[in-house]
Amino acid sequence: MPRPSDPVIPGVRVVLDARPLQDPDRAPTTAAILGSLLAAYDAEPLDDESFAFLLRSDRDDPTVDLTGLEVIGRRMLPPTGPLRAAAQQPRVDGGRGRARTVAARTARSTTPSVPACCPSRPACRSW
User: Fold this and answer.
1) Within a domain: residue 122?
2) What DSSP element (H or E) covers 85?
3) Are 74 and 86 contained in the same domain?
4) C-alpha torsion angle, residues 65, 69, 74, 80 (rounded to 10)
């Protein structure tokens, strides 16, 4: 808690993830609350307050209508939905005709393997 003798430091920079405003169907409550909050900030802006928004690059920018706010930057982020969906698609593994997902291959590569030096020994198989 600041003491009365502490100097007041002007300027507040707000970094805000505005992606829910770009896709309100995905999270309607979040989009409504965030839209109301930004409208309130836009109606009564404070001196020395600035905003930086995180947005999706493949969608329209919903923050351009906020003319009362000092917007110092907009970071356009690439869409991650197609990347996430592609990671879950079956892929052919090594031409052997077996389909595996990327997640299954990752899990397989992190599982300790049995040493190939002595497969018949119980001590080696306990891995």
Assistant:
1) no
2) helix 81-87
3) no
4) -70
Amino acid at 4: P
Could you give phi then psi for residue 45, rounded to 5 degrees? -70, 150
The reply to whether 24 falls in a domain is yes
**Residue where the block lists tokens 């995905």:** 26
Residues 55 and 71 in one domain: yes
| Residue 103 vs residue 84, higher pLDDT | 84
0.90 surpassed by pTM:
no
CB–CB of 87/53 below 8 Å? Answer: no
pLDDT at 53 over 80: yes
Residues spanned by the domain of 43: 12-79
- Domain total for the chain? 2
- In whole angstroms, give the CA distance from residue 33 to residue 49: 20
3-50 tens-digit pLDDT: 777 777 677 899 999 999 999 999 999 999 999 999 999 999 988 899
> Do 13 and 50 touch, CB atoms closer than 8 A?
yes
Give the C-alpha separation, 42 to 64, whole Å: 11
- Does residue 95 surpass a pLDDT of 90? no
